[in-house]
Design goal:
Blueprint: H1 3-32, H2 37-63, H3 65-93, H4 96-101
Keywords: Membrane, Transmembrane, Transmembrane helix
InterPro entries: Cd-R_transporter
Organism: Fructilactobacillus sanfranciscensis (strain TMW 1.1304)
Length: about 100
Amino acid sequence: MDKSRFKLILHTVIITVAACGADNIAVYIPIFIRKSTFELVVAFCVMLTMAVILFGLAVVISKDKRLGQFLNRYSKYLTGTIYMYLGISVLIQCGTISHFLK
C-alpha cells in the first residue's frame, strides 16, 4: 500500500471515529452503567471479538462485487432498520420506556 492511500485510510478512520463517538457513548453508557466488573470484561471481550469478525467480513464483502452492489442499493434501509432496532432495544432494556409510561 502506498503512502498516500494509507494516509487517506487513516484520515477516514479518524473522521469516522470522531463523528460516531458521541453516538456510541449515548448508546453504551446506559447499558454499561448497570453491569458488574465481570460483565464489563465479558462485554469488552465480546465486542473486541465481534470487531475482528466484522472487520474480516468487511474485507470479504469488499471483494464480492454482487454482494457489494446489493449492499450499495439497500444499505440505507438496512442501516435505518438496524439503528431503529438498536435504539428501541436500549430504551426497553434500560427501562426508559417503562419509566416514562408510569
